Model the fold of this input.
Amino acid sequence: MTVPATPDRHRRDRVVLASAVAAVMLTSGLVVFTVLKAERDGTQALERLQQSQVQQLARSMNTRVETTFTSAAGILNNLKLSGKVADPGDKAQLDQLSTYLAKDARTGFYVVDGTGRLANGILLRSEAKIGSQVDRPGLADVLRSGKPAVLDVAAGLTTALPTIAYAFPITKDGALVGGVVSELDVSPESNFNAEVAQLKTGRTGDFTFVDRAGKVVASSELGLLGKQLDDPLVGDKRGFHRGGDRIAVVEPVPAASWRGVFRQSAEEFDGALTGPLKSALVLIVLAGTLAAGVGVVFLARRLRAAREEQRRLQEVSAVREEFISIVSHELRTPVAGLLGFLQTTLDHWDAMAEDERRRAIGRSLSSARRLHALTRDVLDSGSMEAGGLSYSFSATDLRDEVSSAVLATQDVLPDRVIRLTLADEPTWVSCDRERITQVLTNLLDNAVKSAPGSPLDVTVETRGGVAVVSVKDEGPGMNESELARVFDKFVRGRTSTPAGTGLGLYICKQIVNAHGGDIEASSVEGRGATVSFTLPLVPAPVESAV
Amino acid sequence: MSSPPAPPSGPSLRVVVADNDPDALDLLELDLALEGHDIIGKGRNGSEAISLCRELNPELLVVDLRMPPGPNGVAVVEELKDQPGLAMIIYTNYRDEKLRARAKAVGAAYLLKGDLRTLRAEIAKITRR
Done:
């Protein structure tokens, strides 16, 4: 029998396992790469989307400012304002204009002269200021350039709240004579802020408009209104910005010189997309790990099973080799005895006395018998493996077979004490005589060999429908582990004179079982052993019963 | 029936034999005695072989190889290698070249059982020494 060399098998096992692990890792890597790429692409798309939303908002704000400029220019062109301080004509026209204001208007408007002094106003908080210089950043530029503008956040004249203001130039006969400033409060309650206030996104996203100086003119984050927006991410540069754990999108509102800003925590911004992707990734990785784990465990089990099988084969192979070695030795022993006694008798025929010759020939015969028994054991065990022995059953008085077997043993060993106790009545069993004789011979041989010099007790009795045959010796006996394996194949007794093939009791058990009987061994270590077997009793055959 | 002539026997040797197989032991005893040798001791195992040799101071030891439990034939000849005037033969059914080499290393012969004439010839060589 050939079994592949173990190191080769182990190397191959390791290669298979390593390949499996590599394949799993490669697949996992590809999956992770694909998911990460999808995440990156998705994030970029999300950034573009957010940017276009802010652009849209900024554009809409820009349009609103431009529309305001256009419509205000139309109204102002219809008025004939002089721009002079406390001019009653101007005052009358402003009163007329104030009827367009809502009843609950929170801010009003005023006129300045060409040098920036307060000339007239509606809803002024203090009429006393008329005639004094209006200190409002950006207003001077309008009076100088003659172009309308949105003024940055500053204290107003028509409200206590911070304000932004639309400033329009007043011309008379083509000359710049002053300006009109319409204030809007920067506060949570202002109409201007109402639209922006609705734009809050998620937990952390806010839309904000800041003026040139960075003051907040409108925001969905109401607490920011009128305050300086100190945010390093929000510079002059338009577009999408990422910094730290936050993102910002900045788009200009050119008509008002404002910037529209969207800000959010990066986690929340990306989370909209990456949350599900990450969950998917985690699921994929978990599933992959699980599958890989199961696969690896499965593979490892297969490998272990294969190794176990290989080890078993090697064991079987070793047992067989040992068996062959034992059998060849066991066969040589009686052959040497057979040849030796014959040879010495022939070589010294004349020198030997008659009884010496007889004894020597008798020893040859005994060796020949041993050889015969051994070859039969080996061939029988082969037949048993190949599918069982054949049996020829006939009704037999078991006492006869036992007596014959004991006599045959006594013939060879005249000095050995063998006590035979037989049942009084015929003990009929249905058996193959040759096979039962083989069992008896084996049991007697075993007792003779394993208990040198010990007297043997052989009994035949009947007990509850079975015949019981026992062979008892007073030798060293067996311990528990020896008893447990005594009927296994190739198990040899420890007292070895000579050792035997380890087949005898195995064959006995097969034969007894084939007869419907049982065989068992019992022993007290140091005080001998008993092997007994049972055969079912059968009725006496007709001719004998008569 | 005519018997073949007995081989010429040399001078008689004082012999100890040891084998765990009683048949083999009896055969050795019978044949060597018929060959004219003096069987002064019979052992059933390695330990007995050693103590018999130490005690009886034989000229020849014929010892089996495998005699469990206790020392085997090779261990026995290795143990007795320095005993003066003792020739040793391992007489066994085991063909094992390593054991044969170990036996040879201490001056013992290693013979396979089966043909008594091989044994007799080896003994004859010893007697001629």
About this structure: The radius of gyration of chain B is 14 Å. Residues 1-8 of chain B have pLDDT under 50 and may be disordered. Chain B has one domain: 14-128.
